[in-house]
Structures are given as structure tokens and as C-alpha cells.
Amino acid sequence: xxxxxxxxxxxxxxxxxxxxxxxxxxxxxxxxxxxxxxxxxxxxxxxxxxxxxxxxxxxxxxxxxxxxxxxxxxxxxxxxxxxxxxxxxxxxxxxxxxxxxxxxxxxxxxxxxxxxxxxxxxxxxxxxxxxxxxxxxxxxxxxxxxxxxxxxxxxxxxxxxxxxxxxxxxxxxxxxxxxxxxxxxxxxxxxxxxxxxxxxxxxxxxxxxxxxxxxxxxxxxxxxxxxxxxxxxxxxxxxxxxxxxxxxxxxxxxxxxxxxxxxxxxxxxxxxxxxxxxxxxxxxxxxxxxxxxxxxxxxxxxxxxxxxxxxxxxxxxxxxxxxxxxxxxxxxxxxxxxxxxxxxxxxxxxxxxxxxxxxxxxxxxxxxxxxxxxxxxxxxxxxxxxxxxxxxxxxxxxxxxxxxxxxxxxxxxxxxxxxxxxxxxxxxxxxxxxxxxxxxxxxxxxxxxxx
Length: 451
What we know:
single chain; seven-stranded mixed β-sheet; 451 residues; alpha/beta
């Protein structure tokens, strides 16, 4: 039964590899190197006291803007499928994750968090989970297989109330997004204060991820009107200290399929795709670079652990030697005094009857230093000397106990497993990373240029 399941799994992986793009495979393989249950980098790092995060297999693009700014329409255009409702009314009232998959499917809030475990902290924000959903599409358009779009509620001013803290939620999502698209439409709500407040706060931490676009540019009138609208939006943005910067770029875009006749204004929609493509490529490079750094960190920590184990074993050997030495001294001193007293109190004739004469002579010879020391001490101070010797012996025994304390060391099995894991990371993982990097570079350079 297990062999059948293994064969079916291999067949499924083979089919998936055929339909999967190279960049998808690279991110998938990098992710697998981290999450493998037996020899994944996360598991190996945990044994070394290091916490690693598995790289994501897709980039996330957060879309924000006032209502009817064209966020949902852009997603539908990019994936070439109508998955998001569009209209002048506020259609998107919650947060929708739009991602690629095997078949068309819709997921609710809890299922969404199960699919995206790194978004589980959203549960701490009151009312958000009930307004989370995921739309899965089998579309293979553009580079959708490597992108997860996060469509946000349209932002409006006034008495509009949301069942959750919409600004706090968008700011939290912005911390995890790889790209943040801010859509301004030329009609009415482009200068929504709530939108500008959110953009200003996001710009404080993630200015390198934010891209501004004037959507529905075909509805802004002629070129003169469009320039006027752009100037008004840019001036309003520049009033905010955090957004006041030189070279403000805001391409004009519109979805061609939504207009009845060709527009006369320039459509820079391709710029949006270019921004996504660049982020995907940068993410792949960052993932491979992070994989290499993590391998080096694990190798360093492993060597440090093994070196520490060698030092601990050397320390334990010295500690045991000191303990034995002090322990022997602590026992031998009172023992020598005891034997001296027995030998001095007994006659040589009595001792000769018990043991041989040679042994008696040897005992007197070896105990002569003790006898000499004892004779030097006045008889009135013998009881004091005994007390001193007793305390000194006890001190030696206590010193033997404390000096013989050892440090924990790795068992032979644990040491062998640690060495095997280190060899696995240095050998298999690094070799896989090198091959993946070569595969990625071969898309843009020839094989002759690769070292």
C-alpha cells in the first residue's frame, strides 16, 4: 500500500514539475529544504537553538485605495478571470486573498488562516477573521502562479463604519507585503483622507515597497485634465511630511477591456506587471541568498557545538582528576594518623605476631614523617592539632566534591547525528542551492558565463 502511495505521489510530483515554471520550482524546492520533517533546516536549527522561518513560495501584493479605485478590476485583468466583484458601490467589504491553485475555490476566514499560517496573528484583531476570504483560481496568466493579491476594502471618509479597525489591519498586512499598490482614481475620492493617512503610515516603514498609480485614467478627460488631476493628487500627497519627496512617480493606468472604445491617453499598465516581475526576481534571489546564509549559520553553530563538547570533555577530565587528588588527600591524612596511633600504641612484638617484620619496618618507615610531625607538636596541643587535621581533611573532601563537578556533554549518538546533519547541510543543501541558483541564472545568461 505504501509503495502504491509513493508511486502516486511521485507521479503527481512529475506532473506538477511539467506544469510548473522554473521560478515556481525554485521557490518550492527552497521552501521544501526548510520544512522537511526529518532533515529540514528549521528542524536542524531548532536543535541548535536557532529559529528559522521558511521562505514563502509566492510574493504578496497589497492593494489599497478609495472605493471604486479599480483594485478588484486590476486583479481580474491580471489573472484574466472574473473572481472579484466590481462596481461603483463598495463591493469589497473585507480582505480577499486571490491566489493560484489547482481549481476554482472560495475559502472562508478560518480556512484562509489555515492556508496562510503566517497571517494567523490577524485573529488578535477584533472582527477581522469574519471578513477574510480567499479566492483560488487555476489561472496561469502572466506570473500569477507566483503572486498572492490582497484586496482591501475601499476606503472612504465620513460616517462610513467598518466592523473592524480597517486602518490597523491594512498597516499590519503592509508589514508582510512584498509590494504595496496604492490606487487613486480621478473621480471624487482620490484625495480621501483615510487613504492618505494609511499611505503616510505605510510609507514611514515601507517606502521602498509602495507604488502609486492613477487608475481609470481614460475617465480623466483629455491630457490637460489628466495632468491637472495628477498635480492635485501629488500636491496633496506632498503636503504630508513623510510623502514629500522628489521625483514622485505616478503612472496612469486603465483596464482596456472595460472601455467601449480605444482611449487616447497613455496606458502604463505594463509598468505594474514590470514591478511585480522585478519583485518576484528579487524575492528568488533573496531566498537563495538567505538559504546560503542559513546554511553557513548552521555550519558555524554546529562547529561551535562540537568544539564546546570537546572543551567540556577536557574540562570534565581535569575536574575528575582534581576530585580524585583532593579526595585521596582528604582520606589519606586521617588514615595516616590513625595507622600511626595504632602502630605507636602497639608493641613491635604484638605487631610482629600479627604481620611480618618487614611490613612492620615498612610501616614505621613510611609513617616516620607523620611521627616526626606529631612529635614536634607539644602534647598539650595534640587535641587542637587533631581538630585542625579533621577540619583540613573535611575541607579537602568538600573541595574534591566541588572540583569534580562536570559539564554535560553530547552522547555518542547525539554527536554522530549532529555531525550527519552538518554534513547533510554542507553537502546536499548547499549543492541543491548552487544548482537552483545556476538554473535561475541560466534564464538570463548563457551556460558559458557560469563558473
